[in-house]
Specification:
- The structure is a single chain.
- By secondary structure, the chain is mainly β.
- The protein has one domain.
- The protein is built from no helices and five strands.
- The strands form two sheets. Strands 3-4-5 form a three-stranded antiparallel beta sheet, with no helix packed on it. Strands 1-2 form a two-stranded antiparallel sheet.
- It is globular, with a radius of gyration of 12 Å.
- It starts with 5 loop residues before the first strand and ends in a 5-residue tail after the last strand.
- It holds the Pfam family Zn_ribbon_21.
- This is Cysteine-rich CPXCG.
- It comes from Billgrantia gudaonensis.
Length: 69
């Protein structure tokens, strides 16, 4: 993994609304994964959309585990 593919984003937990820094790996293209909130430990769905043209982050969506993203 190359550092130029990693991007840090400030996000808010959809459960407790606490802000935290999320490290996004753009090297895998579009992806859906799970992260635990570092404050309340709730499971957060993370959906990442990456541009196929330039590899930039197009969309970052966070949701609760019972939401459909």
């Amino acid at each position: 993994m190359h550092e130029e593919w990693l991007e840090s984003r400030m996000v808010h937990c959809p459960y407790c609304d606490a802000p935290f820094d999320l490290l996004v790996d753009l090297s895998g293209g579009d992806q859906q994964t799970w992260e635990d909130c570092p404050h309340c430990c709730a499971p957060i769905q993370v959906r990442i959309a990456v541009s196929s043209v330039d590899g930039d982050l197009e969309e970052l969506t966070l949701g609760r585990d019972d939401e459909v993203l």
